[in-house]
Amino acid sequence: MSARLRVAVLAGGRSSEHDISLASARSVVEALDPARYETKTIEIGRDGVWALSPTPGPAGLPAAAHESLPIPTSAAPRALGGVDIVLPILHGPFGEDGTVQGLLELADIPYVGAGVTASALCMDKDLFKAVLRDRGIPVAASVTLRTGDAVENPFGYPVFVKPARLGSSVGISKARTATELDEAVELARRHDDKVLVEEFQPGVEVEVGVLGNREPVASVVGEIVAHADWYDFEAKYAEGGMDLIVPARLPDETTAEVRRLAVEAFIATDCEGMARVDFFVRPDGQVIVNELNTIPGFTATSVYARLFAESGISYPALLDRLVEFALERYEQRRALAY
Ligand SMILES: Nc1ncnc2c1ncn2[C@@H]1O[C@H](COP(=O)(O)OP(=O)(O)O)[C@@H](O)[C@H]1O
Ligand SMILES: [Mg+2]
Q1: Domain ranges of the chain
Q2: CATH 3.30.1490.20 fits domain 142-199
Q3: Per CATH, the architecture of 122-137+203-323 is what?
Q4: How is residue 94 annotated by DSSP?
């Protein structure tokens, strides 16, 4: 019998998306085939402290939480020494933004998903859009406010205000008046010293999964129906907060355009492994890239997994492929001379 691949799933983390990451990681651990993988979970606390989750008790019963083993952050790379591959299932800052990926590069361990540059780039809505604009990929017009900049809005109302580097709609507002705009900027500035004021995009929101390294493929297109004025935190995570309609109710040529732009955005930003690319389709059919998530919500019922399930790739198969892409990337990089 060949040895099982030793997998560490990184979960939790310092961002406001801590709990969402824990849910994603639980799904991943459940779906990794125990015949192929020997899996352990490393839980990163909100305080940044790493802890080795206790191995589940007999018959899958969870062991008591107090048995978890704290790992000093400085010793984190060594704690990872005994694994063959890491699955960083972390969302937002200190996880999805290239920081953990940098740690894993230094520790010389293969890991799933985007590398350092792509992770940092896609986390930053301001820089991400600059790169896409450079490639001629349509994105929403926006102005960037840095510390000390006066509030500015050349777009009229409503307008969207967001922290440059966050996720799950945290710190985002739709401002309908100048007063609301000031409040929205103040809120966003609590989360980031860089804030975007973005032109409102009417129409529908659609999302596409992308999978692969040098020859990425796009999933079917899913349409988000948020049961709210916009796709806020509540709509994203509350039971019944949204419906995903697959395939999206779009003309064939629009669907093709969305899928083409998803792959183009993935390539333009140097992504690897996986990403979920989110779009606005305006009433006139114009397709605008909103953002690209390098570590999308990853439970078995998350949009990413559902889109690939509809595309014929099951959740466990998706994980197998991501592991293969990670190992392939690692081997290719190892052959390079620096
Ligand atoms: N320019 C915009 N026009 C219309 N709706 C927007 C705009 N920007 C964001 N939104 C709404 O806010 C949600 C969250 O914004 P997004 O940029 O995707 O941030 P996050 O990274 O937190 O998901 C979107 O899914 C959409 O519903
Ligand atoms: Mg989003």
Answers
A1: 5-111, 122-137+203-323, 142-199
A2: yes
A3: 2-Layer Sandwich (3.30)
A4: T
Ligand 1, atom 8, residue with closest C-alpha: 160
| pTM greater than 0.90 (yes/no) | yes
Q: Enter the tokens of residue 89.
A: 């299932």
The residue whose CB lies within 8 Å of the most ligand 1 atoms, and thus the one to mutate among 96, 126, 169, 196, is: 169
Contacts of 318 (CB under 8 A, 6+ apart): 211, 305, 308
Tell me the average pLDDT across 129-137.
98
Position 22: which residue type?
L
Q: How many residues does the chain have?
A: 338
> Token pair for residue 122?
């896609």
The beta strands (E) that lie in the chain are given as 5-12, 37-44, 50-52, 69-71, 85-88, 142-146, 159-163, 173-175, 194-199, 204-212, 217-226, 242-245, 273-281, 287-293
Beta bridge partners of 288: 280
Parallel, antiparallel, or unpaired: how do β-strands 217-226 and 242-245 relate?
antiparallel
Instruction: Answer whether 129 contacts ligand 1 (Cβ < 6 A).
Output: no
Q: Is the domain covering 5-111 a CATH 3.30.2010.30 domain? A: no
The response to whether residue 205 sits with its C-beta less than 6 Å from ligand 1 reads yes
For residue 107, CA distances in Å to 32, 80, 88, 223, 279 come to 23, 8, 14, 39, 35
Higher pLDDT, 109 or 61: 109
Estimate the crossing angle of helix 125-134 against helix 116-123, to 10 degrees.
100
- Token pair 């008591």 in the structure block, residue: 64
- Give pLDDT tens digits for 184-203: 999 999 999 999 999 999 99
